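Posting this for the archive.
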Amino acid sequence: MSDLLRKAINLGVGLAVASKEKIEQVAEELVAKGELSRSESKDFVSELMRKGEEQRDELKGMVREQVSKVLAELDIATLQDLRRLEVRVAALEQAQHRESAPPAPSVEGDTETAAPPVDPASSDRPTP
């Protein structure tokens, strides 16, 4: 049984990267040696897979936390920061577009908003 415990511990250490096939292979070896029954091997595989998933999730959380800390320390913009800036830039561009847009066409007979007629003879072109 100490060999079983040693293998389980060794396998547990590598569960974050171990595949189901590898775990099943170890379980089959233990069954062949008589250290586990067939029904125990299925429970063994299920339990190790569950623990492996838990360890992977824990590891992902720790890595995310550390990356976030490093990014904060380096003062590097996150994806969320960039998206907020994109929204702000889009709003500013729309506001600028509205301000620089030509006035709406005037209603017929409305002389206050109509543009004065242009005299082609008084153009800004230099005379030859």
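The two ends are 107 Å apart (CA to CA). The chain has a mean pLDDT of 76.
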